[in-house]
Amino acid sequence: MTTAFALSNLAVLPLWVLMIVAPRARLTGRVLASPWAVLPPIAVYAWVVLPEIATILPVVAQPELPQVAQLLGQPTGAVAAWAHFLAFDLWVGRFIVLDARERELPGVALSAVLLLTLLLAPLGLLAYLVLRTGITGRIRQLWQLAWTSSRQLSVLGVLSLLTAAAGMVLPSFDPRQLSGASVWLKPTKFGVSIAIASFTLAYLLRAIDVPQPRRRRLVTTIAWLTGLVLVIITGQAARGVRSHFNVATLLDAALFQIMGMAITFVTLAVAWLGLYAWRTRYENAALAAGVRFGIAIMVLGSCVAFLMPRPTASQLASFQQGQPTPLIGAHTVGASDDSGSGLPVTRWSSAGGDLRVPHFVGLHALQLLPLAGFALGRKLRTRPVLAARLTRILGYAYLGVTLTTLVQALRGQPLLAPDATTWWMLASVIATAVLAALVAWLRSDERARRFAPDARAVLAR
Q: How would you label 381-409 residue by residue, b for 16+ Cβ within 10 Å and e otherwise?
């Protein structure tokens, strides 16, 4: 079985190297032109399975989890399954290359998709199906818009995405953990979040009227200081220590203080940008409302972070007793510390309140509200006043949800365990927003009927 396992890998390796390195080369096309290119892993599969067909066939004919697990737990079953995977993965890779050559898709994107297919075939196939929809052209257009708006923010966005990608791969080689999660989880999350924020700000700068010298200073402050925070978080992860609330050594405490000061200046810069957003005159009133509310609520969500470094009761007691206190502050409220049970991926506490929830909700108003304003402005382009009013109502509702999650966290309540007070707050926000939107819509219809002849005449001209 060891020999068969090695042969199954060697049987597909040359073709995968050829497809990934040179997917558009003439040699690759000639080799893959024949469907018999996938014969080698099939031969290995047959060599392993056929002698054991009496054992394997009953399990696959009537599959049940205990029997399948038992079969795969044996060398024969594991090698048979592995050869099976390799054969069909290679067939999928061949299909991707041949189909992409006919569609003349870019080779770099195709190589990345093929590498993903080699490692995680179903996700690679999904990525290719997305790629062939023409999304690369749209991504190129979006990149050009971001690059012409702000090169610094665009570079920060790309570097943040690369950091996130590295953080997803490194746990396979680095098993170290902090608080029950990989040391690379925090750089991954921050990389994704910073990338989204960077590109969003780059796009929004196209709509905000800021004098050029001041615009350059604001962008430089946001890009460089945010990049510094990401570097510190990644560096601390590489050291295998916490980046937040860590005062165990002078170096850790200094780095945490530097991050706090950097975030303070970034928040002030975004708030200053928000002042220009409120003064800018927009052609699309709904987009204007989305941008203004989005930046304002983002600043509020960012300010939630300043509540986190407060010492917890246990930390204060430890400090007062003269005991070593390596951590000052926490994300959670009402829980012992941040190392307790939490939700998947986000690690938000399931034992107490978590200030990361309102922080997250507030920060992402920067994306959701401008998008909502843009969508409403396009959907109701013949009724711009109504679109703007609905966007403002949505902004107030989003603010209400952010404040609700903040109150819930400060009361030491987990996100997924709201009590009656939290439910009433959330219901009040939703009901008020729905009622306000209904009133705005009815008033708009009434005015439209009242001035319908004039409106038709204007549209006709």
A: eebeebbbbbbbbbbebbbbbbbbbbebb
Relative orientation angle of helices 151-169 and 185-204, to the nearest 10 degrees: 160
Q: Are residues 437 and 313 in the same domain?
A: yes
Label residue 78 exposed, middle or buried (CB < 10 Å: 0-12, 13-18, 19+).
middle
Q: Which one-letter amino acid corresponds to residue 434? A: V
Q: What tens digit of pLDDT does each residue of 338-392 get?
A: 655 678 878 888 888 999 999 999 999 999 999 999 999 989 988 999 999 999 9
| Span 56-105, pLDDT tens digits | 888 878 888 888 888 888 888 888 888 888 888 999 999 999 988 888 78
Q: Which tokens go with 139?
A: 């991504």
Do both 271 and 410 map to the same domain? no
Give strand pairing partners of 332.
Answer: 354
On whether both 235 and 379 belong to a single domain, the answer is no
Please say if the pLDDT value at position 449 is more than 60: no
pTM summary value: 0.78
Q: How many CA atoms does the CB half-sphere of 440 hold within 13 Å?
A: 18
Tell me the DSSP string of 46-60. HHHHGGGHHHHHHHH
Give a yes or no: residue 145 inside a domain: no
Question: Which residues, listed in sequence order, are joined to residue 342 by a DSSP beta bridge?
Answer: 349
Instruction: Give 230-248 pLDDT, tens digit per residue.
Output: 999 999 999 999 999 999 9
- In sign, the C-alpha dihedral spanning 138, 141, 145, 148 is positive
State the residue range of the domain holding 393: 287-461
CA atoms of 110 and 117, how far apart (whole Å):
10
- Per the CB < 8 A criterion, the answer to whether 98 and 32 are in contact is yes
Name the nearest CA neighbour of 12 among 101, 91, 112.
Answer: 91
* Residue owning tokens 């939107």: 437
Q: Are 44 and 11 in contact (CB under 8 A)?
A: yes
Rounded distance between C-alpha atoms, residue 441 and residue 299, angstroms = 30
Instruction: Please give the DSSP secondary-structure letter assigned to residue 312.
Output: P
Specify if 310 maps to a domain: yes
